[in-house]
Fold each of these.
Amino acid sequence: MKALIIDDEDLARAVVRQHLAAHPDVTVVAECANGFEALKAAAQYEPDLIFLDIQMPKLDGFEVLELLEAEGRRPAVIFVTAYDQHALRAFEAHAVDYLLKPFPRERFDAALAKTRALLAAKEAPLVAPPAAAELAATARQGRPLERIVVKDGPKITVVHLDRLDWVQAQDDYVLLRTEGRNLLKQQTLASLETQLDAGRFIRIHRSFILNLDRLVRVEQDGKEHREAVLRDGARLPVSRAGYQRLRELWEES
Amino acid sequence: MHPLLASRARLGSYLLGWLPIAALLAGMARTQGWTWAEAGALSLPLCLLGAFLFLSAWTLCRALPLGQGTEGLANRGAAWGTAALLMGGLWSGLAWLLARGLALLPALNGLPIKVRTALPVITGLGILLYLASVALSYLLLAQARTLEAERRGAELQLLAQESELKALRAQLNPHFLFNSLNSISALTAVDPARAQEMCVLLSEFLRRSLGLGERRLVTLGEELELARAYLAIEQIRFGSRLQLAWHIAPAAEPALLPTLLLQPLVENAIKHGIATLTEGGVLTVDAAVTEGHVVLSVDNPVDPDAPPPVGLGLGLRQVRQRLLGRFGSRARFESSLRDGHHHALLVFPLETS
């Protein structure tokens, strides 16, 4: 079994490595100090298992997992983290294991045993592993998303939500408009909508979500045809339901 | 006790306020053909008696506080009216007795007859004065209530600050603790001596922060010791990613400041600065003294790709509040993000114990 250890702290990686010494069937193919290294190593070694920290610079653990997914990789994952245990307890329902730092040897061995069983059953999985975005949402415990990672060819772009102007649905993809650029990400508009802060991002149309901060005014021409005028002069269609949502927000504030 | 009786100055000005009323009474008497002696001899003592008699309105007003609406206004009106009639009658009765007493003096022996004809006027004036006293009492009651509310507000604020401090003491960052323990767990196998060193550092940090949490004011020197203990641990965790630069003027160390003001700043510098950078960077702590003020700053690089945070975070807001709570306008707190660096600046008067 090929394994990757991904953690920004040397000592945290060392603990996992020490514990793995007792499991000769597991080979550590690489150790990575950040998400970018992890993606590179995953492409190079195609690991069966990754030990993944959650809080890391640039890309957090969930984002690394999401990007791996986008590349069609889905190694078994054991989260190793000092993250809030309440947030992670829900993972048990998803058959995803996690180790809370610091952890005892028995706990480590148990997690590894579970992973072996999971990998053995991979040919005929009983339950599909949850999408990374879903895990991340679980861990956020209802808090809205703060940034979106997009794989743009070989490049990875992290879009902070205050830099996101609007989102447009394009079949199975969403087009993200940020700082004058368009980025495509494989996700449905509906699933993205549930993760965004409903007070900041409004579904103004079947195909559009708008960052409310960018809205200047809504213009009406014709009986039921409305357009949102944005700060940069761009115009987006506003449906009747979308207009209703905007009005509700205005009336609340 | 009546608030006017509570302070000599207030009582004095209240009695002075009765002088024009006495003058008015005397003037009215003069127009009825009274001599100056008669008018003065009656009006002055009568007004003095009235001054104290009408203070009784206070008790009535306190028993019948003004509500928000007009509810029960009729009942209260009836009570004021009845009391005013009684007091007006009582006052004119006193005037009559006073006149009888003064009539013992030969120059004033015509007073009782004159007073008898003036009794309705005195009663009417008494009623009006009593009603005026009712109005004054309500005014004083409202003022007392406002003062009370202000006092209670200040008390609450103090309580809130206390509880905030308690919360700060309890706020040992769990993420930091668990990560540190994990580092120790790693070191026990590969480098037992370092593991031991880190246990000692962690204990020192915990002991210091518990100790500081007990106090409201500490010296900057003590606060710096806590930061050093904390950063020594983080340095083991982050390795070469965390470099430290200390520029501490010895003259700044005895300066007193509210407890745990520096600690949130260095914790932020790690959490939102060094930890977000794959290459890490230099964390600088500066303390200098200029013109009787301590200038304390914490500087660290941040991830340039992260958007600048909106406003101050809760931690920084608390730092500012507590600094200004202690020193008022003599202190200053700034937090700025420029050229990929976060810079927190505290300026406060150099005060030592």
Amino acid sequence: MKRTRLRTLILGVTALALVAAAIVATASARSQQGTTTVTMWSTMNDEENETLKGLIKTYESANPSVKINMTVVPFDQRETKFTTAAAAGTAPDIMRAEIADVANWGARGFLTDITSRVSAADRKDFLPAAFAYYNYAGKIWGLPQAPDAPALLYNKKMVKAAGLNPGKPPQTMAQLNAWCTKVGASKGIFLNGISYFVQPWIWAYGGGLVDPPKKQILIANSGSRAGMTAYKKMFDSKCAFPNKDFANAYGNQQTAFKNGQVAMIVNGPWSTADILQGPEFKSPSNLGVAPVPKGPTGKQGSPVGGNGFVISRNSKNVAAAYNFISFLTKGPAQAAFAAKNNLLPSRISSYKIPAVKTNRIIADFLRVMKVATARPVDPKAGGIYADFDPGVQKILKNQVTVPKGLLEVATNWKTKIWPTYTIVLR
Amino acid sequence: MTSTDQALPAPDAGKASGRGGPSLGERVSRSFAHYWFAYAMLAPVFLVMAVLVFYPLVRGIYLSFTNADQFNFGGRAIPSTYEWIGIENYKTIFTSPELKSVAWFTVVWTFVNVFFHFTIGLGLALALNRTLRFRGWYRMLLLVPWAVPSFISAFSWRFIFNSPYGFLAQLLQKLGVPLEDVPSFLSDPTWAKVAVITANVWLGVPFMMVALLGGLQAIDAELYDAAAVDGANAVQRFWAVTMPGLRPVAATVVLLGLIWTFNMFNVIYLITGGGPGTSTQIFATFAYQWAFVYKDYGVATAYGVIILSILLVFSQIYRTTIRRLGEETWS
């Protein structure tokens, strides 16, 4: 009895192994018959991936010898998954990377240098703020697809009810304060405890994060301190929504804005699809989009983020992979993503395409992009937020003063990220 | 724990060979001849342990003395270039400004949690140890926190504590508390500590309750009768019969609870992520931060080694306690 069961088991396992071997054999045999299979990991959301699938079909019918094998990887797992695979030499040919990933992965030897493949015309056509992230150590490591930057989003109805002109959004931080007060107690603006959204204030008041060429840490300098102080002042003011929960702040901010409990928030284009589903924005024209205002010295900035495509070092099909990513970052593909998903094109020329031109959200965010600031391009720059967030939260909760809190952030950056940099205090 | 069990026979063997008699080699070969079948049966387990426990352990300890980070770690396709740097990583940890608060909250977290796990668990166990109607139902309901996957519970608690949209904040507002006075459950340093501990107490009570209930049911009913005949009241019976009778089970589960709670990662990670600031970071979550946020694998593994050393002390206490209790019970 026992013996027969064992025999069945052995037979079963052998049969499975044979089937698996057969599948592998046929698969590799097929790939040898002149078609190139390009593998790709996409980090887009469901709606965007639908657009991508359509573009893949278009591309495959135009290039019958190429097959694109697309796998969806959740955005927040991309780092772990790609770096693990790349270190083992099993990464896909094409990876969709967030801009902060590019210099990091390039420095770690995970990417193919595509400098020689990018034409001079292309280099001029990409938005400089977005393309900057793909240039590291004198080489080009990828192509930008969809840049973004947070903007001041406002509820036109609420603003109008407070006697303000929704067609003339605040230009300066002082005007922003006035708007906030005018809208009323706890309804003016929702300010986050996430450091990413504090950056516009830091830049507006003349501060900065780090300066890799000069090897300087700027987050504790006088401009940064002034920016943080202004942010905290608005956070504590009566007109600010009582943000009592840093752990849930991002979701709470969306809820409050969608339901008309707060008139202004600071968020990026990625959030607009969600916002437009809220009861206050049944008519999409109620959503106002403006650049985050200027500071007292006329400076202005909003962190540029976004995504693009890179080719892994272990790719055996670099030519085919490059061909496909350049297809994905050209006008027609960008117009498709713009029309269906409100993704901002990364090429200047794409903004002349009618489908892009008539998209009002994109037109609004283009004005934001024009005054946006590139985050430092450095392999380690992605790590700054790990200590920046706790620092901002401690300051907002009065656990430390602004100068002490920012100095803590600067010291953490120095000890954990850039030991050779100097901390600038002036 | 298992690794120490495996490592322990070695010093004993050394002592035995010093006392004369057959040499170590002879004894090993004789023992092998005698027990080869047992060794053959153990081999697969040992192999799995070697791959899953011993190798990572040794490599982790080695890495804690290197400057391994994301840029030099390498992989199958890329050569590794990290170097031996001695005790630098340990120095980094012991001089870091966060160490004091992280260490202090780790201690508070561990002991406060286990204290409430035990007292509430014991109370419920005592209540359920009597015959009452629907006892089976109560038991089942009280097991719910244990039956739900802990990350789902953690997310639910995060929602309960959400301010102003969560259950607690809404309830307080319904009761007439103005929004300004609703506490910031997850962004006030003290409240955040209370919040994560509350969630973990809720999660940990069922295990204690079940374990202690088992202990209570093992106490001989005749002892209670005898105590009653001697004129002991309920309180006296509790201290003279219940507590001593419960000791073997209680000591075991409390020590296990200390070890688990010390290493409890997901509740804090999912509810506050260690924030606000670093006020709810414990060793386990902070080591994660070094490994997966700063990607400094040297310091992260050094944290791992420190956590392991602390747990070794715990498990040593646990072993001695178990042995002593065993002697008490059987002699």
Amino acid sequence: MKTRDRILHTSLALFNEEGEAHTTTIDIANEMDISPGNLYYHFKGKDELISELFNQYEHAISLTLSAPMANRLSTRRDSAENNWYYLYVVMEEMYQYRFLYHNLDNLLQRYPPLKRRFKRLIQLKRAAMFTICQALLQQEVINARSQQLLALADNMTLSMTFWLSYDTLVNDRRSPEITIHKGVLQLLTMVAPYLGDDELSFYHDCESIYLAMLADANTPGS
Amino acid sequence: MGDDKQKASDIARNIWLAGVGAYGRAVEEAQGRLEKAMEPPKLFRDLVKAGAALEEEARETTEAARHSVEERINRVRENFNNQRPARTEDLVKLSKKVDQLARKVNQLSKALADLGIDSKRGNKAPTKSVTAGPAAVRSKLVRKKAAPRKIAAKEARAGRKARNTGVLASKRTR
């Protein structure tokens, strides 16, 4: 790996683990066992690091979020589950760059150029959620009026955006699998009132997987 | 209903196009104008327009993204199904399979037992094909007995080979 990529990699790991605000470029250089001067040669400070990491994230998540718009995730009722799996994909991607979400307001205040771009990502997320709900409505997986559909998409976007910080706040740090799975379960809970019996069984499966995960996590020595 | 559907898909498309457009330089211009004129609907219209221009370009990249999203969806599905609690219908299917297997094993062991008895007795069977049977089985058994040594040697060779290629592979990646 090139030094530049290694710096980005290490920064992302430290930002995610220790929090972006608490991590300095010196910490990053120390962690990598390179001199601060060497780091400075590649990035002229934390602004540049954050901006580059945000570029990476923006690129990846934009492509993921526009996927359902470009093409339906499910074409028939029996492939409706694809939409739920897609929520995992998005949440996993967000989790990789979770430092952005953990202190969002603060981060956007300190790095104003990111604000507009972040807003755009949220719009994309809304559009993706709306497209999914709309496809589900057309495939008669859910039953709702179009007015509710917009509100539902908004609620899903809201939960998705703040899920990672909420979960950390309430449960401290948990394993990523549990955090992500519970996040998806949370989103499904919002759709559940509109679901027919077939898809409800998926919801119940999702619930029991979560309980099994919790039981596993609480077993000492596992 | 058809109208509703059309309207709904237009909304999603417009939100999306506004998003794509915001990525372009056009947003800067639109925002400059916004600050002067305070025309939010116009901003949105401009964004949609700019987005439409970029849509073609975006379509190509989304094609590639779609593949990766599909792949990841498949991975999640697999993972999910592994953790999914067993349903009664799955269990029924499974026990049917077990029953089938058990029947096959019974048939096989019965066939083997018959042959074994025949070969021990060494009796003359009435038809040619049946006499050929035990002999073939016996020679197979003999071969099987001899096999372990060969197999062990083979495995040792394979192991060395694997290790060698492993070294090569790791060298190559370095």
Amino acid sequence: MSNKSPDNKIAGPSRRDMIRLAGLAGLAGSVTPLAMRPAYATAEAMQEAIRKVVGEATVTPGKVKLEIPPLVENGNTVPCEVTVESPMTPTDHVQAIYVFCEKNPQPNAFAARLGPRAGRPAIATRIRLADTQTVIAIAELSDGTFWSDSTDVIITLGACLEDLI
Amino acid sequence: MARALINVPASAKRGEVIAIRTLISHPMESGFRHTSTGERIPRDIITGFVARYNGEEIFRVELFPAIAANPFVTFNTVATESGTIEFEWSGDNGFSATERRNITVE
């Protein structure tokens, strides 16, 4: 197993080393191998991406429902469904739906624009998740307010950072 | 031409909310992977998808590398009138695909 993790400027240890280190850490109870993970996006990068979308507006939890299985074996294809409570009238409808992933190399997953003609605001797709993380869905309503929902997802096999053999 | 699967009901009642399911074959190479020699594999993804109902845009989505290979997108729309729904995908390296489906609204 090579250790050419993307965006990792300092050559990290191999997986075998990590396992050894983890074992040592377990014994010594002091060193944590967490610091040597590949450079995924961070919670800050996600907040920044969210700020780009919502601007100065506050994001309130509610109205949005993000459905992802809580335990996923293969992060390469994870079913993801976002539904929003809205009457979808010309004066009161969902304008946009965004999904962000905390620990993917890039925090954005998709950005959808819809209008009153959608009838029922629901989008389903399949996303990639690089690691166990929190996924956030944000909906923008026609009155300019933003609503969100978040889900913690446990990933057994992460996506897209594996090297080709 | 990429293969696309599209599910649109052939007929619907006026005002009914219909679900549209689309899937297109595409590797969605994220640009974050490397070959065994350490070279980064360049990004090759579908970046945009638009649906138009008799020429009027009803749905648009911007896709990022976090979308799984063979992008699958479902959304809803109100069946307003008989006609054609056009689906257009666009992406890196000049990727472009267009499909049309007819719908009869009673």
